[in-house]
Amino acid sequence: MRDLTVTLLQADLAWHDPAANRARLGALIAGLQAPADLLVLPEMFTTGFTMDDRAPAVGPGDATLEWLAAQAAASGAVVAGSVRWAGVDGFRNRLLWMRPDGSWAHYDKRHLFRMADEQQHYLNGTRRVVLELHGWRVCPLICYDLRFPVWSRNRGDFDLLLYVANWPAARRAHWQALLRARAIENQVPVVAVNRVGGDGNGIDYAGDSVVLDAHGEALVEAGAAAGAFAATLGRAALEEYRRRFPVALDGDRFDLASD
Q1: Pairing of strands 136-142, 218-221
Q2: For 72-128, what is each residue's pLDDT tens digit?
Q3: Catalytic residue among 109, 132, 139, 239
Q4: Is 118 among the residues known to form the active site?
Q5: C-alpha span between 91 and 59 (Å, rounded)
Q6: Does residue 8 register a pLDDT over 60?
Q7: pLDDT of residue 259
Q8: How confident is the model at residue 129 (pLDDT cuts 50, 70, 90)?
Q9: Hey, which residues does 84 pair with through a beta bridge?
Q10: Does the annotation mark 143 as catalytic?
Q11: Is 139 noted as a catalytic residue in this protein?
Q12: Nearest to 140 by CA among 78, 194, 80
């Protein structure tokens, strides 16, 4: 067992400007004072949360993939965040998980935010993904997924929940409460990265990126400031807590119905 150091990269995203956002986030990474195992960027970190079908998108061979690979190689950490992804069948809100060796995995957002008509512009994902990092099983999810506890439910298959978001300031109380609930009910730490500033639609974001332990207690809180915020998750303490208080043994069994 080993501990895991995560760094949250909370930033004000430039609207529809991938180069500016790569430069802004790259400067945060370059300025890190200590190494990390996992660097986490917000949802749609190249564009902001956009429904504009003309907005820049990421695809194979794109500069953003090259940038992610370079950041992961230079830092020795996995770099994760979601982008507007252009596939052969349409656009997806896709979380990219870039490893230092240049290999990568992805998770496609399952729950599309209908109040912004996201389902009219993007294809939803159909499978949950669990990724391994230094012995930790990480379940990455995106923004609106947070509101659906069944999709986030620990079935004994993960040790850490990861959320990337563009969560509006108007509903910041929901963000804070739901993140704590997901940590407590699943008995896992939660790493959650949101953005700050305002977007091209006039929506404001309060940040509130946070790392919570399995009790729902904050290890680091970013507040409303742009910057990098680090916390170390203790594996031995997590295992001991779940051993002493094995809530999962009494959990309800269920199957997820397909669409």
Answers
A1: unpaired
A2: 999 999 999 999 999 999 999 999 999 999 999 999 999 999 999 999 999 999 999
A3: 109
A4: no
A5: 10
A6: yes
A7: 52
A8: very high
A9: 93
A10: yes
A11: no
A12: 80
pLDDT at 73: 98
Q: Evaluate if pTM is beyond 0.90.
A: yes
Task: Please state, in angstroms and rounded to a whole number, the distance separating the CA atoms of residues 8 and 41.
Answer: 7
Residue with tokens 């500033």: 197
Indicate if the alpha-carbon torsion angle 19, 21, 27, 29 is positive or negative: negative
User: Which residues lie closer than 8 Å to 43 by C-beta, 6 or more apart?
Assistant: 49, 81, 82, 93, 142, 143, 164, 165, 166, 195
Catalytic residue among 66, 143, 221, 239: 143
